[in-house]
Amino acid sequence: MKNTFLTFILLMLSAIGFSQESAFKSGEYFKFQVSYGFINAGIATLELKETTYNGKSVYHAKGDGRTTGLSKTFFKVKDDYQSYFDKTTGQPYRFVRKINEGGYTKNQEGFINYKTNTVLLKDYKAKTEKTYNVNSKIQDVISSFYYLRNHDKLNNIKVGETIQIDMFFDDEIFKFKLKFMGFEKIKTKFGTINSMKFRPYVMSGRVFKEEESLTIWVSNDKNKVPLKIQASLLVGSLKAELIQYKNLKTNLKVIK
After folding, report:
1. pLDDT truncated to tens, each residue of the chain (256 aa)?
2. Which of 23, 71, 146, 187 is an S-S bond match for 41, by CB 3.0 to 4.6 Å?
């Protein structure tokens, strides 16, 4: 399970161009129950607020993940992901990745400069600083989730079509690509909900069983709420389900 907890949640949530009509608003909050096989392994949360960065009003998104119960005894996880991104364009300006997953740790902060199209990455654990060349459409892990919920292609996407973005992750640009699998009604804690089903492409052999080992379901409404995520790993399976939400921009559509 190394490096698969909140990282897994955030990468998969990103599976869903910034449009004029935003799918979210300040104050939005999500809470997920994470399960490893039949074991309730932990909790992950995502919260969005407004703040000021370099004198500009921006969104501040914060993702936290932690193991709970017996899982904490065998595999302790404490993750902190943050992103500061533009309220209009969705471009991130600063991101934080501070994780401890079973002894695997990272403590990094990135600053994106769009005048030079570079990322200054400060690694506080290694006590290093390095600059990377990027493009003006680069996203970090957590900003990608919000950016793609507003993607205009979602309103007209056809089964089998793909969406791809450039994401800065693990000191490199990651080509994040996903395929739309169709529409599906799924049962949730809140009732039955019409959803859109996506399958992100991942690297097989290291953590995941196959290239298409991951599936994510998001609500087929204006919110594009992440409802369920599941993955087949080399050892076992991982699942995350939405168990609480607050302050959605529009009411979540529940069939029954």
Report:
1. 344 445 555 555 554 444 446 899 999 999 999 987 777 878 999 999 999 999 999 999 999 989 887 777 777 888 999 999 999 999 999 999 999 988 889 999 999 999 999 999 999 999 999 999 999 999 998 999 898 898 888 888 999 998 888 999 888 888 888 889 999 999 999 999 999 999 887 544 343 344 446 789 999 999 999 999 887 665 567 789 999 999 999 999 999 7
2. 71
204: which strand partners?
Answer: 208
Which residues fall within 8 angstroms of residue 209, CB to CB, at 6 or more apart? 232, 233, 234
- Say how far apart CA 72 and CA 62 lie, in whole Å: 22
Write the Ramachandran bin of 171: left for phi over 0, alpha for psi from -120 to 50, otherwise beta: left
Distance CA 33, CA 57 (A): 32
How far is it, in rounded angstroms, from Cα 120 to Cα 115? 13
CA distance 123 to 111: 12
217-238 pLDDT per residue, tens: 999 999 999 999 887 665 567 7
List Cβ neighbours of 244 (8 Å cut-off, separation of 6 or more): 29, 30, 31
- For 170-186, b where at least 16 C-beta lie within 10 A, e where not — what string? eeeebebebbbbeeeee
Strand stretches in 114-250, DSSP E: 118-123, 128-133, 139-140, 162-169, 172-188, 191-200, 214-219, 226-232, 237-246
CA atoms within 13 A on the CB side of 140: 29
Side chain identity, residue 242: L
